[in-house]
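Exercise 7.
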Amino acid sequence: MSISTNQFKNGNHIEVDGTVFKILEFQHVKPGKGGAFVRTKLKRAADGNVIDKTFRAGEKFRAVRTEVRKMQFLYKDGTDAHFMDTESYDQVQIPEEALKDPLRWLRDSDEVEVLYIDENPSDVQLPSALDFEVTHTEPGLRGDTASGGGAKPATIETGASIQVPLFVNIGDKIRVDTRTGEYVSRA
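Solution. The predicted structure, written as tokens, is:
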């Protein structure tokens, strides 16, 4: 089965020159002179690198079969992240290098959706926002209010560092946008 450039959708997976990519963005361009083309931003499934690539309009690619399975994050060991299928108890590993961003937001035993590409586990899909407890931050100063500007660094329970408003203290539950790594609100 193949997919044409006019069937592109954000989030689709295609194979280009033997490498699987996820389509992050695409734009159809029809110049006044010459043939139409499609400008894309693609994320390589193997390591998460993002590239810009241009294709001729109507070019065809192999459509990649994807499937999402609910799994439990067990641990990371420095080279691989380990997950367990909660129904069959099968365990799979995904190289940590390919999951740099999602691993910042995972706690041991978290339920996640593991993306399988052509029957191989390759990525983790997270909700757009998650709640975390602040484990370390400098204390807020007197007079720092919810309406006051400014930010300070904080460490959350997964070990990730983010910028939070001055009024956030150790032990507070906060909501973080997992796509950008930004503070959203108190939880």
